[in-house]
Amino acid sequence: MAAELNALRDKIDAVDKQLIDLLAARLALVAEVGEVKSKHGLPIYAPEREANMLARRRAEAQALGVPGDLIEDVLRRIMRESYTSEKETGFKCINPTLGKVVIIGGQGQLGRVFGHMFSLSGYQVDTLEQADWPRADAILAGAGLVMVAVPIDITCQIIDQLSTLPAHCLLVDVTSVKSEPLAHMLATHSGPVLGLHPMFGPDVASLAKQVIVCCQGRDAGASQWLLDQMTIWGARLQHVDASAHDEAMTLIQALRHFATFAYGWHLCQEQANVERLLNLSSPIYRLELAMVGRLFAQDPHLYADIILSSSQNLAMIRRYYQNFGDVLGLLEQGDKAGFIAAFERVSEFFGDYATQFLRESRSLLAQANDRRQHS
Length: 375
Description:
About 65% of the residues lie in helices and about 10% in strands. By secondary structure, the chain is an alpha/beta fold. It has three domains: about 1-85, Chorismate Mutase Domain, subunit A; about 100-240, 3-Layer(aba) Sandwich (Rossmann fold), CATH 3.40.50.720; about 245-335, 6-phosphogluconate dehydrogenase C-terminal fold (Orthogonal Bundle). InterPro entries: 6-PGluconate_DH-like_C_sf, Chor_mut/prephenate_DH_T, Chorismate_II_sf, CM_dom_sf, CM_II_prokaryot, CM_T, NAD(P)-bd_dom_sf, PDH_C.
């Protein structure tokens, strides 16, 4: 039996080597594609091309008895690596006459992400840090774009110091709240103004498929080049007014971060054995626990600033607390029928999204289980 298994495993190893060789060849082709896209100013992410290619590969795989989901999972992972490879070839510069880009807080994590992307696109990038303010006028002179990438709690204070920017300069912020910074930018600077909120962290390998929220402030035409540049980087732009953005962020960020913090705080207070929880967990609980742990591996000041950035956030958290108590009351009363009725009400609220999320989560859970190692 051992001899038979070893012979088959040797053949599998040989096939694996062929797969590695093919992947290397594919990545080399991707690099060439990146050069062509850079030359012609094409986005690195082409959703229609991706969808059509995946549909063809699924059909071809299924014709050979290979599950369509398997080949799609493999190709999506390969494409994620491909987007990173394409990024490093650089991007076409949409506005070569812009002048320099100055990022205030450019040595911070998010500032470095944007600084790198602008540099890859051929722009001259300078940074302005806290120690540089005595010579801020010299750094800002001739700037075509000034991006404010500082902590939320000092964003408006920094913006208020930018009253001497060149009239043609585009002033942008990248904080997670938009109404107040946008109002300060409009009051401080007479030129074009744009509010941005990148919906990703500084650890992204590529901006392909990453969402950037755009809130127009003044002179939309003067900021179109930046929107086009970010699209070339692969970002998906979502346009919304500042008040609607801030209302949505009370749920997407503030409430979600608070609930995650509260669960982590509860585990800490209970002195839960995290290793035992992992050993006994289902794939979905392991994934949920990973998302909780991920929060506490990051900067607490950032999350405190996000949650405390608006009175709307605290009001939303208070309503969450009240709704949590209402549901707990059903359980304390042993009201199984009431709990089921509430469950069905929420299910109706989600509608078809519930089925969509169930389908999407299966892939995530399978990946979480694949990475699990048992001793």
